[in-house]
From TrEMBL:
Homodimer. The keyword Acyltransferase applies. Transmembrane segments: none annotated. It is found in: Cytoplasm. Its EC number is 2.3.1.41. It comes from the Bacteria. It catalyses: a fatty acyl-[ACP] + malonyl-[ACP] + H(+) = a 3-oxoacyl-[ACP] + holo-[ACP] + CO2; (3Z)-decenoyl-[ACP] + malonyl-[ACP] + H(+) = 3-oxo-(5Z)-dodecenoyl-[ACP] + holo-[ACP] + CO2. This is 3-oxoacyl-[acyl-carrier-protein] synthase 1. It is an enzyme of class 2 (transferase). Signal peptide: none annotated.
Length: 424
């Protein structure tokens, strides 16, 4: 029999707020973390706006030792450690200082790619026959599992310590992987989340695909427009989100604060067949993912009060709304409230799911549904499916009991997780 799993800690390093307090305030106010980047302009990018966390150098001293900071040049690793350590502390847990690993505690922390700038530096040094100058931290900063290895060592965890990678689905997938491990009794506590790198070497490929907005270089905060008729594409972003998942028994024994319960979810793929491809979703798979997530969570579709969609501000937004409606059998005014945080934080790629799950859960804590920024002109195809009142423009007071969160990624992969307000 599966055990109940709850969320007892959260941390975030987002483009519009570093730390839960600042991030919550930013979501309330609709504050944007999207800015013009002179470096992208110098490199002749078509889209010269992006979203990345603003982390001050003196802040890093709270998260890294002087030795760890030496030669550190991997933005995703930095974001992930900040979010991960904050979530661990928020859960009332301390780093392990004994000589025995915390056998019941693990890490599942994902990324798409790690240490791109560090890897670039390494290439130049190798080509210049300066291999000995690479330094001892090059490998840890450039291997994908560097983030989980870093956090596992900082916290002293002895259960599974691993990194998952599933494009934009990574963060949400990691939460479900952690949920399954705890619910099956293989762990008591798992720090899960995901991080994504900043910079032109990450964002350049998307600019070349011409799927980023090009008409907002002088108006960055208006560039990301999920569900809008005037949307031109997604704004690239970066950062990290982290959650501590824990068995209910463990949380109660510790007297831990409980943010929410994870009821269940589903992972699948469209197989890149039919209408599915490397970059386009297979609608049948998306609908099946949503339906099975609801079924696996032991609820009915009408019980879902709010949805935090993937909704990237591309031409696929209207299709996503249709897929939600078909999967749930709900439309018009009966459709749940739905929002996307990407109007404020852009599309944080591998970090998107975890950052957005943190924001979704905060709605239980605050008794609100956060608003949709830059969605004054809702796409007419969306309005054919659901009523415009279900897409709040600003934060509204509302106390959701059940929230669905989904992420859909390159490679035609899907994840949907169902959270509920905690009830003893």
């Amino acid at each position: 029999m599966s055990r109940r799993v709850v969320v007892t800690g959260m941390g975030v390093c987002a483009p519009n707020g570093v730390g839960i307090k600042d991030f919550t305030e930013a979501l309330y106010k609709g504050k944007s973390g999207i800015r013009h980047h002179s470096r992208l302009e110098q490199l002749n990018f078509g889209c010269q706006v992006a979203a990345e966390p603003l982390v001050k150098d003196n802040v890093l001293e709270r998260y890294f030792t002087p030795l760890q900071l030496r030669g550190l040049n991997a933005s995703g690793l930095v974001y992930g450690v900040i979010a991960g350590k904050d979530a661990w502390a928020d859960a009332g847990l301390s780093p392990n200082t004994s000589k025995t690993p915390l056998w019941d505690c693990g890490i599942i922390f994902g990324t798409g790619i790690l240490g791109v700038d560090k890897f670039r530096d390494a290439i130049y040094q190798v080509d210049n026959k300066e291999v000995r100058r690479l330094g001892s931290t090059t490998v840890i900063q450039t291997m994908a599992s560097g983030i989980s290895a870093y956090l596992g060592g900082i916290l002293g965890c002895g259960n599974q310590v691993t990194t998952n990678s599933s494009a934009c689905t990574t963060g949400t997938e990691g939460i479900l992987m952690a949920y399954e491990r705890i619910s099956s009794g293989k762990a008591e506590v798992i720090l899960t989340g995901s991080c994504g790198e900043s910079g032109p070497y990450i964002w350049g490929g998307f600019d070349a695909m011409r799927i980023l907005p090009r008409d907002f270089n002088d108006n960055p905060s208006a560039a990301s427009r999920p569900m809008s008729a005037s949307a031109q594409g997604f704004v690239p972003g970066s950062g990290a989100g982290a959650l501590v998942l824990e068995s209910l028994e463990s949380a109660q024994k510790r007297g831990a604060k409980i943010y929410a319960e994870v009821l269940g979810g589903e992972l699948n793929s469209g197989g890149q067949v039919g209408e599915g491809s490397m970059t386009a979703p297979n609608s049948e798979a998306v609908q099946r993912c949503i339906q099975k997530a609801i079924r696996n969570s032991g609820i009915k579709a009408p019980q879902v009060d709010a949805i935090n969609g993937h909704l990237t501000a591309t031409s696929k937004d209207a299709l996503e709304i249709t897929n939600w409606s078909v999967a749930m059998g709900l439309s018009g005014v009966k459709f749940p409230y739905i929002n996307s945080f990407k109007g404020m934080i852009g599309h944080c790629l591998s970090a998107a799911g975890s950052i957005e799950c943190v924001g979704s859960i905060l709605q239980f804590e605050e008794g609100v549904v956060f608003g949709n920024v830059n969605c004054e002109d809702i796409h007419p195809e969306i309005l054919k499916v659901i009523d415009g009142s279900r897409i709040p423009q600003k934060t509204i007071p509302y106390r959701p009991k059940i929230i669905a969160k989904a992420s859909f990624g390159f490679g035609d992969v899907n994840a949907c997780v169902i959270f509920s307000a905690y009830k003893n």
